Amino acid sequence: MNMNQVIVVGNMGQDPKRRETVSGNVVVSLSVAINRNYKDKNGEYQQATDWVNVEAWNDLANSIYEDLHKGDAVIVIGRMKTNVYEKDGVNQYRTYILADEVGQRLNKWRKKEATTGFEDMGESVQEEIPF
């Protein structure tokens, strides 16, 4: 059995880049930063960032282009894909995630909105909460 499914959770490194193919298909490219922590040889915690390239097509591409921006926390579900092309007589390889689904990490968004909402509404909202 073979399986090619990838799930990454991270932050968008830049605004999505949109283009159209000759046949009229819409393609969006984006990069996702995935932060990870590790201990170095001295036992100190360090942080490293892995960058993953993502590509989406047509309706999904349009949604990403309209709704997502640099810094947004996202979840990407898709499959790894490698394109091979020749440059100066040498084969070049481009590996990326071909996205089936891309969405905002709602728990990050909701925390931000909830904090902002209560601060903006003042004490009156907190007085109405029955607990």
Number of helices: 3
User: From the 3D coordinates, which CATH architecture would you assign?
Assistant: Beta Barrel
Distance between the termini: 53 Å
The major sheet is characterized as:
5 strands, mixed, barrel
Task: Give the integer mean of the pLDDT values.
Answer: 87
In the CATH hierarchy, the third-tier topology is known as OB fold (Dihydrolipoamide Acetyltransferase, E2P)
Helix fraction bin? 10-25%
Count all strands and give the number: 6
Order of helices and strands: EEEEHEEHH
Q: What percentage of the residues does DSSP assign to strands (E)? A: over 45%
Strand order of the largest sheet: 1-3-4-6-5
CATH superfamily: Nucleic acid-binding proteins
Note poorly predicted spans: 114-122
Rg over C-alpha atoms, rounded to the nearest angstrom: 20 Å
Given helix and strand content, the structural type is alpha+beta
Question: What is the CATH first-level class name?
Answer: Mainly Beta
Instruction: Please state the overall shape, judged from the principal axes of the Cα atoms.
Output: globular
Organism: Megasphaera micronuciformis F0359
Protein name: Single-stranded DNA-binding protein
Subunit structure: Homotetramer.
Pfam families: SSB (PF00436)
